[in-house]
Amino acid sequence: MVKRKVIVVMLACLLIVSSIFSQVKLVSEVGIHTEAWKTVMNDFQEETGIKATIQQFPYSNYFDQLMLTFTSGRVDFDVPYISMLWYPALATASYIYPLNKLSGYEELNLEDISGIDNGWQNGNLYYIPYMNELGGIVYRTDLFNDPKEKAAFQEQYGYELVPPKTLEQYRDIAEFFYRPPELYGVTLMGQRSIFLATHFLQRLWARGGNLLDSEMKPIFNSKEGIEALQEVGEMFKYANPSAKTYVFQDALTEFTQGRSAMAEIWTTAMLYTENPETSRVVGKASFVGFPRPEELKNEKLPMLYISWGFTISSASKNKDQALQWIKFVTDTKNEVKAAPYGNIPARFSSINDEELRAKFPWLEGFSEAMENSIPTPMVPLIPEGNSIINDYIAPAVSEYLSGSKTAERALNDAADGVYKLMKEHGYY
Amino acid sequence: MSERKNFNHIQYILPSLLFILVIFLIPIIYTLVISFFSWNLLRPDLGIKFVGFKNYLQALKDPFTWETIGRTFYFVIISVLLELIFGFSLALSLNTEFKGWKIVQSIILIPFMIAPVVVGFAWKFIVNNDYGPLPHFLINLGLTSITENPLLANPTTAMFMIIMADVWEYTPFVTLVLLAGLKALPQEPYEAAYVDGASAIQRFFYITLPLLRPSIMVAVVIRTLTSLRVFDTIFIMTGGGPGSATETLSFYGYRLAFQSYQMGYSSTINLISFFLAIIFTLIYMKLIGWDSNE
Question: Which segments of chain A have a pLDDT < 70?
């Protein structure tokens, strides 16, 4: 009798222990792509028997929370779902674990994931993209396909009104649709922020320029950089004057309320334009990658790339279960299933899925842009990357826009600051 | 007997002392210690290095720090001055009992009860060129040149808009403090002055103002200290821009700590802000005469 009781207690203990170990703790921001992958968490448990739990933080203090948890050493999660921009700092500090050191990582079918090259650092794979998007132009298809508009544009500019492929076309179209206060040519984001910096970065890359050279020295104050910054200022002429105070949400609101013909934003905006509760342009918008100068339009050049994805915490005791979760959630079938809830999948096989294409026709423009560009994160993937953009590039663009400095001086001052920062951190 | 008395005193103040120590002193001491180190959270490989006064020297040599201190002074002085003027006027107006005065007093306190983040969003709306009432009001006054650029995108007007939001939010606090002071003033000096034939202006300058000095001091010191740590409104309304036109010391400290993760240098900037708070307080005490034994 006693023996039987002992066995029952031991079995109960085993059950409790196994239930503790057969789980994976996820941590994420509060955002639409998180809501999308949350929809397959139950499927994961059903298929693998591993319970997935989640803790979410508001985006505004999510990274701070992660950093504080990691530095305090009290890490209680296995899988942080993070922005691609954050992983280099976490990897340098060994807070996240190289996925290629775990057996079975090859099953992730990496070559099918766009932008996966950005997930490698020093020969180790730390980051698996789940949500991918590109910086480009979201435009109004109803206006672009309107025969009257087409004819008027043809007459005024001598060529057909189509989604812009070159910077020259982009400027012409913005000018053409600039009919304030009812309609603005383009929506831009002018408040001093990382969003404003993207307008400069896109034009810098489109001209073949870059932020840093191979020795990590700043080169964005080049001729290409100065021209790029001056062009940012030019484009604001065709935007709502209030756009100089916009951040992402303001820009999104202006476009979804039908107040502009184009918005220089990123692919996620399409998910918002399709929401009938908040958008007046449902079914009237599409996406095209960021234009190039006429002479470089066929070149494969860097394009602003934003990604969120999965990593595994070094302190995790459930690394195998964590990898199983990553394999499950990034599987084509599950990416396609979750996408309609608010995600742009990272796998080529997912964005080319017929069912998904039927739901989101604009994926065609996105897929085309992805294939014809070098997806480049908006922040250099080094620990200093955020500082370079937030502390130097964004203020420089803002100073030029507000007329406080010339383009050349703003960029030279920023380059001096970046050089000093990198030198202090031992890059040269 | 006297030892027992002393023991009792310590026993009574010990909880408060411990509270102050844990909540106030330890963080300040920790910040002070960190300010002597080079510590970047994003580069743990570089370690935490003792650098002595290097952070302080760097801060003092950097023209940006001085520009930021200048902007902080501008913000604090103008906003506190305006709050004092408006707060005093409101307190004097409300220092009479009329029908519904309690309701009016409650209504004017509303801005003070709103979270600064919400105030930031509300003012971003108020000054918006498209639908905000302020630009339309300015245009109706014929001041179109001011509104050619959005008020928050113009380096000259952006800081003033932040000041306006701050004044709107905190004037009720100043009013409340001064009104409490006014209500506590003794009536005898006024009666004597009335008998002596003093005018209303003379009564204000020779009786009300001197007697109200302690209340003014409290309002000004508290507002100065809270103005020095203004952050939310700036974060929401301008993000520190255009350029760096609205970046104050506390915002700069935040940026260094939570965008660049330079914990040592950020601590130095925050301590500079702390020293400024002490300087401001000492100046006020001197001006208002609290350092003397009057």
Answer: 1-2, 6-21
Largest Cα–Cα separation, chain B: 79
Chain B residues within 8 angstroms (CB to CB) of chain A: 40-46, 124, 128-130, 148-150, 152-155, 238-245, 255, 258-261
Cβ proximity of A342 and A32 under 8 Å: yes
Q: State whether A395 and B244 contact (CB < 8 Å).
A: yes
Q: Which of B130, B243, B258 sits opposite A398 (nearest CB)?
A: B243
Q: What is the DSSP string of A250-319?
A: HHHHHHHTT-EEEEEEETTHHHHHT-TTT-S-TTSEEEEEPPB-GGGTTS-EEEEEEEEEE--BTT-S-H
| B191-229 b/e (C-beta count within 10 Å ≥ 16 → b) | eebeeeebeeeebeeebbeebbeebbbebbbebbbbbbb
Kindly report the nearest CA distance between residue B15 and chain A, in angstroms.
Answer: 28
Largest Cα–Cα distance of chain A, in whole Å?
97
Give Rg (Cα) of chain B: 23
Please answer whether residues A42 and A13 qualify as being in contact, where contact means their C-beta atoms are separated by less than 8 angstroms: no
CA distance A335 to A113: 11
Contacts of A226 (CB under 8 A, 6+ apart): A407, A408, A411
At residue B13, the pLDDT reads 83
Query: CA A164, CA A181: separation in Å to the nearest integer?
Result: 23
Question: What is the DSSP-derived secondary structure letter of residue A133?
Answer: E
Structure-token match 């660049």, residue found: B260
Q: Which domains does chain A have, with CATH numbers?
A: 20-133+306-377 (3.40.190.10), 134-304+380-424 (3.40.190.10)
Which residue pairs from A351-360 have beta carbons closer than 8 angstroms and sit at least 24 positions apart in sequence?
A351/A114, A360/A270, A360/A274
Q: What is the pLDDT of residues B4-47, one digit of tens each?
A: 556 667 778 888 888 888 888 888 899 999 999 999 888 878 88
- Best of A216, A242, A413, A422 to substitute, by most chain B Cβ atoms within 10 angstroms, is A242
**Residue A319: alpha-carbon gap to chain centroid:** 26
Please answer whether residues A269 and A263 qualify as being in contact, where contact means their C-beta atoms are separated by less than 8 angstroms: yes
User: What residues in A contact B241, CB-CB < 8 Å?
Assistant: 191-193, 395, 398, 402
Q: Rounded CA gap, B147 and A393, in Å?
A: 27
CB pair distance less than 8 Å for B149 and A241: yes
Tell me: the pLDDT tens digits for B77-90?
999 999 999 999 99
Report whether A376 contacts A119 (CB < 8 A): no
Chain B partners within 8 Å of A402 (Cβ): 153-155, 241-243, 245
CA dihedral A170, A171, A173, A175 (to 10 degrees): 160
Cβ atoms within 10 Å of B37's Cβ, excluding its own:
19
Reported pTM? 0.84
Say if CB B10 and CB B19 are below 8 A apart. Answer: no
User: Is B241 in Cβ contact with A192 (below 8 Å)?
Assistant: yes
Across A192-196, B102-106, B181-185, least confident range: B102-106
CA gap B38, B59 in Å, rounded: 13
Q: Among candidates B206, B181, B182, B180, which has minimal Cα distance to B194?
A: B206
The reply to whether A383 touches chain B by the CB within 8 Å rule is yes
The structural domains of chain B, ordered by start, are 62-288 (1.10.3720.10)
Tally Cβ neighbours within 10 Å of residue B77: 14
According to DSSP, the residues that pair with A350 across neighbouring strands are none
pLDDT for res B83:
96
Gap between the Cα atoms of A402 and A244, Å rounded: 9
**What was the pLDDT predicted at B294?**
47
Query: Using an 8 Å Cβ cutoff, are B55 and B268 in contact?
Result: yes
